[in-house]
Amino acid sequence: MNPNKAVKAEKRLGPFAYKDEAKDLLESDVPIWMPCTCRRNPLVPAQLMRLHIVTPKAPVSSSLNIRIQPSSVNQNGYFYPNSEPFELTYNKYYILRLPFAYEGPDGPVHPPRSAKSCGRLFKNWFTAKHQRL
């Protein structure tokens, strides 16, 4: 699975179709802006706005450690909503809304003008560990 491409689910494959790909996605940096999958010309950038997280009923400890670099790699400016990882409770559905606009030390960070991958959500933003009963 490539984090620079949108994931499209196929209902016929069932809920476990992307089990291995999800692991790869969580262990990769995810772009904040990427080319839109719409068929619009000229291509426009799409922005990562929400993360949908479902925690299982199983005895699992889950946490979020959101760290975002909205600009390119060679520029400063990071977005950290929490200094420590945020613990999630089991058997819940969470929607994490990411900022629409970012600001760095040099002022606002503008989205790319062309449809290219830019910015990143750092890898390992979500962790889950099995707890023994």
Task: Give a structural overview.
This protein is mainly beta and 133 residues long. The chain has one domain. 6% of the residues lie in helices and 29% in strands. It contains one helix and eleven strands. The chain has a three-stranded antiparallel beta sheet with strand order 6-4-11, with no helix packed on it. A two-stranded antiparallel ribbon has the order 1-2. A two-stranded antiparallel sheet has the order 3-7. Strand 8 (102-104) and strand 9 form a beta hairpin. The protein is globular, with a radius of gyration of 16 Å. It starts with 18 loop residues before the first helix and ends with a strand. The model has no long low-confidence stretch (mean pLDDT 81).
Strand content: 25-35%
N-to-C series of helices and strands: HEEEEEEEEEEE
Order the strands across the largest sheet as they lie in space: 6-4-11
Approximately how much helix is present in the residues?
under 10%
Radius of gyration: 16 Å
Number of domains: 1
Low-confidence stretches: none
Number of helices: 1
Family: Belongs to the SMG8 family.
Function: Involved in nonsense-mediated decay (NMD) of mRNAs containing premature stop codons.
Pfam family, one: Smg8_Smg9
Keywords: Nonsense-mediated mRNA decay
